[in-house]
From TrEMBL:
The keyword Ribosomal protein does not apply. Pfam families: ATP_bind_3. This is tRNA(Ile)-lysidine synthase. Its main location: cytoplasm. It is an enzyme of class 6 (ligase). It comes from Fuscibacter oryzae.
């Protein structure tokens, strides 16, 4: 009994420590119906004063999904918890990495739902086994520090704080939570399908445990590596403040400061810059990123993943590559996934790249003190094919354009 009490106390302490700045008014739990997420929901429902909302994503990829959502619904009804079911309209089985596509769809759907509900925190039921599997996946791909740091305990994306409060606990710990409470859960048959690499790695954990390499030990190693990664991230933050400035949605790096920056910090800085500029979900491959680092240190032009490196007298500029920019959008919509434009729009106006045709109509663009490549990739307002305004490339006081924090956070000097 004492061991059971201590185990439960540790679980509740982990939940309480998830919010070091104070408990939010409401928090959502992503619940598939599996044992891990059902245990998380049950534990969070017992936290005094917490307003817990359950949300389930039905991917429509398995016949059992509806029954699993119904299982969650029954639990929520019995405990007076609000529960929403979201469905993924994928138009048939997606091509490529099915598990990755489903994961991204789940996060996107839940994030959109949470924003609509005014919920800023979403908890996920990942465990030490998930952490160990992620570490082994990284090893299978010869990953560096970032790939071996495991799952993040928390992160922010799209205005939502995502939380994994139970990464230090095993699946067995969570199954015991359910058994003690008499709570049912579902077993996903895809978790036994050797078609998926993660499943094969999961099965490899058993013989590793026989050698003394348990999932909990691997999770601890991932946590230690994550601390090292966090230290490097802090150093990268400091470098961003001293090495670069943001202007017109582009990044300008000081040549002398670049020369004195540690190579690893410079690599991390450039990777973060590419993600910030493109809103891409995945960082560029290590080899391609290293080529960009070499070009930067040599002061040479280069491109990578929709980003241009442009040497200029004012510094080394990173900006969007025009041919990779997003299509024209209607007023009020984000252009290129990150630009918000405001002004006296007329019916039929569109926001699109200034481009060479637009820049040619601005006689004084050089007075802005920005490289031509930077200005080409800035937003402009077009009306029936005619340039109306270019807020960052000329004198258009009625119009404003700014980068909104819709993608990757980046603490840059202005």
């Amino acid at each position: 009994m004492g061991d059971t009490g201590a185990a439960e106390a540790a679980l509740f302490a982990a939940l309480g420590a998830t919010f070091p700045q104070g408990r939010p008014e409401r928090v959502a739990v992503a619940v598939s119906g599996g044992g891990d997420s059902m245990a998380l929901l049950a534990l969070m429902a017992e936290m005094p004063g917490w307003q817990v909302h359950a949300v389930t994503v039905d991917h429509g990829l398995r016949a059992e999904a509806a029954a699993e959502a119904a299982l969650v619904a029954r639990f929520c009804a019995a405990h007076g918890l609000p529960h929403s079911v979201l469905r993924w309209d994928h138009g048939g089985a997606p091509k490529g990495n099915l598990m990755e596509a489903a994961r991204l769809a789940r996060l996107s759907l839940i994030g959109e739902w949470a924003r609509g509900q005014g919920i800023a925190h979403v908890a996920l039921g990942h465990t030490a086994q998930d952490q160990a599997e992620t570490l082994l996946l990284g090893l299978s791909r010869a990953a560096g520090l970032d790939g071996l740091s495991g799952m993040r305990a928390n992160w922010q994306d799209g205005g939502i704080t995502w939380l994994r409060p139970l990464l230090a606990f095993s699946r067995e710990d969570l199954r015991q939570v359910l058994l003690r409470r008499g709570i049912d859960w579902a077993e996903d048959p895809s978790n036994a399908n050797d078609r998926f690499l993660r499943v094969r790695i999961r099965k490899a954990l058993e013989p590793l445990a026989a050698l003394g390499i348990s999932a909990e030990m691997l999770a601890q190693s991932a946590a230690a590596l994550a601390q090292s990664r966090a230290a490097l991230d802090r150093m990268t933050d400091a470098a961003a403040q001293s090495v670069m400035v943001q202007r017109a949605g582009a990044l300008c790096l000081n040549r002398d400061a670049v020369a004195g920056t540690d190579p690893e910090i410079l690599r991390r800085l450039l990777r973060r810059a590419v993600l910030w500029l493109t809103c891409a979900r995945h960082a560029p491959r290590a080899e391609a990123l290293q080529r960009l680092v070499a070009a930067l240190k040599a002061g040479q032009a280069a491109t990578l993943g929709g980003v241009r490196l442009v040497p200029a007298l004012t510094g080394l500029w990173l900006c969007r590559e025009v041919r990779s920019l997003g299509p024209a959008v209607a007023p009020g919509m984000l252009w290129d996934g990150r630009w918000q434009v405001q002004g006296p729009f007329a019916p039929g106006d569109q926001v699109a790249a200034l481009g060479a045709a637009g820049l040619a109509q601005l006689a004084d663009w050089r007075s802005m003190g920005l490289p031509r490549a930077v200005l080409l990739a800035t937003p402009a307002i077009w009306r029936q094919g005619q340039l109306v305004a270019a807020p960052l490339a000329g004198n258009f006081p009625e119009w404003q354009a700014e980068v909104v924090p819709a993608c990757h956070a980046f603490n840059i000097a202005h």
